[in-house]
Amino acid sequence: MHTLGWPAVLASLSLVGLVVALAWWLRLGIEREIVLAAARAAAQLLAVGIVFTAIFGSSSAMLWAALWVTGMVIVATVVVRRRVGMPLPHLTAVTASTVAGATAVSLAVTFGFGVIDLDAVSLVVVGGITVGNAVPSAVLGAKQATVLCRDGWGQIEALLALGFGPGQIVRFMAPRAARSAIVPQVERTKVVGLIALPGAMTGLLLAGVAPVDAVIIQLLVMYLVLGTATLCIVVVVVTIVRAAVTVDLRAADWVRPGART
């Protein structure tokens, strides 16, 4: 493979530039977000590249890789917590344990079955794939659950008045938020191989791996990603809906119209 230079990277920005120009012309007001996203991605990836160079060349590469994966789990938890925008009981602990647990399972399956050799690079890559898919799914689940509880605060109070307990309210309301949140991940899974070739499979094919072997590895990655994403959605949605009911069986203050920010 030829070594890529900055001209190729700049050329890849052509579509981004086109979108920014089109958004500015149509007065959509999204140009700033697009430019900031592109700039932030460049800065973060360059920083990561520099750090990885130091980590992977170190005699303690495995230790640093493990710490890096741990750091990703912590950052993911903080991101989800900030996206919710308010303190909710147990949300931080539940999110951290779910992301950490899903990451541990992914690592155990991938390296335990010898799918790829365990080294510092593969540890960070597999951990990054897992955590990277957990965050947007958890954030989407959190947003759906928060909107559902706030829009349905009257329904929550009505259910409480009818004698429903917290568990029954969760079973009644959580499915709607969960179904909405899983749609993107489920749809991506449904069309894989038909209108999209996943990154892992594409990379393996370009590296000369046999197509069937590439498919098997991609299936493993895809199922781990699907499981991670949906698990995070379910856990976060249930936690937030449960937090909509107080210990003394009232609708929590954060779901009431007067308490909204």
Q: What features would you describe in this structure?
A:
By secondary structure, the protein is mainly α. It folds into 2 domains: 1-56, no CATH class; 60-259, no CATH class. Helix content is 76%, strand content 0%. The chain has 10 helices and no strands. The mean pLDDT is 87.
Could you give a short description of this structure?
This protein has 261 residues and is mostly helical. The protein has two domains: 1-56, no CATH class; 60-259, no CATH class.
Largest sheet: none
So what's the oligomer here?
A: single chain
Reading the helices and strands in chain order gives HHHHHHHHHH
Total number of distinct structural domains? 2
The CA-CA distance between the termini, in Å, is 52 Å
Mean pLDDT: 87
Topology of this structure?
Layout: H1 6-12, H2 14-26, H3 31-56, H4 61-84, H5 91-112, H6 120-151, H7 153-161, H8 166-190, H9 199-206, H10 211-243
